[in-house]
Design goal:
This protein is of the alpha/beta class and 508 residues long. The chain has three domains: 93 residues, Rossmann fold; 209 residues, UDP-N-acetylmuramoyl-L-alanine:D-glutamate ligase, CATH 3.40.1190.10; 175 residues, Mur ligase, C-terminal domain (Protein-Tyrosine Phosphatase, Chain A). Helix content is 34%, strand content 19%. The protein is built from 16 helices and 21 strands. The strands form four sheets. The chain has a nine-stranded mixed sheet, with helices on both faces. The protein has a six-stranded mixed sheet with strand order 14-15-21-16-19-20, with helices on both faces. It has a four-stranded parallel sheet with strand order 2-1-3-4. Helix 5 crosses helix 10, helix 5 packs across helix 11 and helix 10 packs antiparallel against helix 11. The protein is globular, with a radius of gyration of 24 Å.
Length: 508
C-alpha cells in the first residue's frame, strides 16, 4: 500500500467506504493524517472498522477543522444533486479530492529520479482493455509494472512508489474531475460518446473532465489521442497548437501521416520517421474487432514512447489473452462461438461488438440505463426512446435476438419494428440455450452467441461481472457437453485436456 505521507498532520474527511474509500482512508492513516471516515451505509461502516479504518460520523463533525474531503468517485459533488458531505465541504471552503489526487501528490513529492512512469488512460469505451493490454506488454517486456485505478486494484492499494516502476492507470471522468496534480508521462484519450450526462450535465462538461488527463504534461511527455471520432480530431488539433508536448494521433481504421494506425487489421507505426509494419492484429485472439485495433494502436504508442522496441511490443500484443467481459472469447461448441461482452452497457459499446461478427445470435437486455437526451430533456428510458436505432447499421449481422430482463419487452418492440427477429427469453440461461439450439440448427458458417446487453445488470445480477460470469459458466457447460460427445465419437480426444472444457481459454 502507498502511504500518503504528504497529508501528515492534516485532518482529512473520507466519505464513501467502498474499495477506493477504505484504501484511501488506510493510506492516509499510515501516512500520519487524522482521518474521519464515514458512509451512509452501516454495513460499509462495519467493513471499514473491521479493516482498521477510523470511522466517525461526518454529519456531526466540525468542518472548519477539516483540511480536505476525499470523496469516493461514485458520490456526486454537483450533479445530479450534490451529496450532503459535498455540500458541507463547499460551505466550509474544504477542497474535494479523490484517491487519484492523493496518489499524484505522493508522486510529485518524490525527487525526479525517484518518480515512476505514469501511463494514464481514459475514454468512454475501450479504456479497460487498453489499460490491461499496456500492463501485459510491459510485463512481457520484463518491465516492472502495476495496473490499477478504475480497474482492478485501487490506486493507493498498489505497491509503494519508486523510480523505474510503471503505473498503468485507468481513469474515469468521475476520478479525473477531482484530480489536479497528476502528471502523466503518457496520457491516452481514446474516444468520447454520450455517457454519464446526468453526472456532468452536458457533453462539454464531460469532455472537460476527460481532458484533465493532459493537465501538467510537459514537452517530455506524450499525449496519445484517438482520432476516429470528431471529438478526438478536434482535441488533437488543439493540443498540437499548444506545442507543449508530443502529440500522437492513433486510429484503428484509417491511414495517418504520422502516429500509429491500423489498416485492414495491420498495425503500422510512423513514430520513428518511417512507416513500419508492427503486427497483424487479425492474429491476436484477444483483440477481436476494429475498436480493439484502436486500443492496440493506443497501447503501442504509449509503450513505444517509453522506449520499448517494436518487435517486443508486437509479440506481446499477439499473446494478450483479452479482458473478461469485453468481447471475451469463451470457446466453441461445435461451430458455435461464445463471446462474453457483458461490460457493453451502452449502445456505442454494443455497436463495436455487432460490427465485429457475422451470424450473431444476440443476447441483450437488462435494466435500461437512464440517460439525458441531447437536447437537455428529462431522463427517459433508453429502450422506449428508441436508442437501439443507433445500432441499425449493424442489424444485418444479427440472425436473431434473445432478450432478457426489464428491458426485454421494449427491446422486442424496437427490434421487430426494424425487422430484426427477436424473442423474449426473460432469463440468461433460457436465452443461451435457445441461442445455441438455433445457431446449431442454422448450419450457418461461424455462428456467434454474443452477450452484449446494451443495459445495466442490476435487475437480475449484482453487477456486469456477475452477469458475465454466469454467461461464461453456462457457455462452458454447453462446451463441456460437446467435448464429451466428441470424445465418445473420437476416443483420442479427452475433455479433461481440452482448453474449452477446462476454461483455460478464459484468461481475465
Amino acid at each position: 500500500m502507498i502511504e500518503a505521507g504528504t497529508f501528515k498532520g492534516k485532518t482529512i474527511a473520507v466519505f464513501g467506504l467502498g474499495r477506493s474509500g477504505i484504501t484511501a482512508a488506510l493510506s492516509l492513516q499510515k501516512g500520519g493524517a487524522d482521518v474521519l471516515a464515514w458512509d451512509d451505509n452501516e454495513a460499509s461502516q462495519k467493513s471499514a472498522k473491521d479493516q482498521g479504518v477510523r470511522v466517525k460520523d461526518l454529519t456531526k463533525a466540525d468542518w472548519d477543522k477539516i483540511d480536505e474531503l476525499m470523496l469516493s468517485p461514485g458520490v456526486p459533488h454537483e450533479l445530479p444533486k450534490a451529496h450532503w458531505s459535498a455540500e458541507k465541504a463547499k460551505n466550509a471552503g474544504v477542497p474535494i479530492i479523490c484517491d487519484i489526487e492523493i496518489f499524484a501528490r505522493e508522486v510529485m513529492a518524490r525527487a525526479p529520479e525517484r518518480r515512476p512512469n505514469i501511463i494514464a488512460i481514459t475514454g468512454t469505451n475501450g479504456k479497460s482493455t487498453t489499460t490491461a493490454l499496456i500492463g501485459h506488454i510491459l510485463a512481457e517486456a520484463g518491465r516492472d509494472s502495476q495496473v490499477g485505478g478504475n480497474i482492478g486494484r485501487g490506486v493507493l492499494d498498489l505497491e509503494d512508489i519508486y523510480g523505474g516502476a510503471n503505473y498503468v492507470l485507468e481513469l474515469s471522468s468521475y476520478q479525473l474531475e477531482r484530480t489536479y496534480s497528476l502528471k502523466a508521462n503518457a496520457a491516452i484519450f481514446l474516444n468520447l460518446t454520450p455517457d454519464h450526462l446526468d453526472r456532468h450535465g452536458d457533453m462539454k462538461a464531460y469532455e472537460q473532465a476527460k481532458l484533465r488527463i493532459f493537465a501538467n504534461q510537459t514537452k517530455d511527455d506524450t499525449a496519445i489521442i484517438g482520432v476516429d471520432g470528431p471529438q478526438g480530431k478536434r482535441i488533437c488539433s488543439r493540443l498540437k497548437a499548444q506545442n507543449g508536448r508530443r502529440v500522437l494521433p492513433i486510429s484503428g481504421k484509417r491511414s495517418l501521416g504520422r502516429g500509429v494506425c491500423v489498416i485492414k487489421g495491420k498495425l503500422y507505426s510512423m513514430m520513428d520517421g518511417r512507416c513500419e509494419l508492427v503486427v497483424d492484429l487479425r492474429d491476436a485472439a484477444g483483440l477481436d474487432g476494429e475498436h480493439n485495433w484502436q486500443n492496440a494502436a493506443a497501447a503501442y504508442g504509449a509503450v513505444r514512447a517509453l522506449g520499448l522496441k517494436p518487435k517486443t511490443i508486437g509479440k506481446a500484443i499477439l499473446s494478450f489473452p483479452g479482458l473478461a467481459h469485453r468481447l471475451e472469447n469463451i470457446g466453441h461448441a461445435g461451430p458455435v462461438k461464445y463471446v462474453n461482452d457483458s461490460k457493453a452497457t451502452n449502445v456505442d459499446a454494443v455497436a463495436q461488438a455487432l460490427k465485429t461478427y457475422d451470424n450473431i445470435y444476440w443476447i441483450a437486455g437488462g435494466q435500461a440505463k437512464q440517460n439525458m437526451a441531447k437536447q437537455n430533456m428529462a431522463k427517459q428510458d433508453m429502450a422506449k426512446e428508441g436508442a437501439l436505432d443507433a445500432l441499425a447499421p449493424h442489424f444485418g449481422n444479427i440472425t436473431r435476438a434473445y432478450l432478457i430482463g426489464e428491458a426485454a419487452d421494449d427491446f422486442e418492440r424496437s427490434l421487430k419494428a426494424k425487422k430484426v427477429t427477436a424473442k423474449v427469453s426473460t432469463e440468461l440461461r433460457l436465452a443461451i440455450m435457445c441461442a445455441t439450439k438455433d445457431a446449431l440448427a442454422s448450419r450457418a458458417p461461424n455462428p456467434v452467441v454474443l452477450l452484449s446487453p446494451a443495459c445495466a445488470s442490476f435487475d437480475q445480477f449484482k453487477d456486469f461481472e456477475a452477469r458475465g460470469d454466469e454467461f461464461r459458466k453456462l457457455s462452458l457447460e454447453i462446451i463441456g457437453v460437446f467435448e464429451r460427445e466428441k470424445a465418445n465419437i473420437d476416443p483420442s480426444t479427452s475433455p479433461s485436456t481440452s482448453p474449452s472444457a477446462t476454461g483455460k481459454e478464459n484468461v481475465a
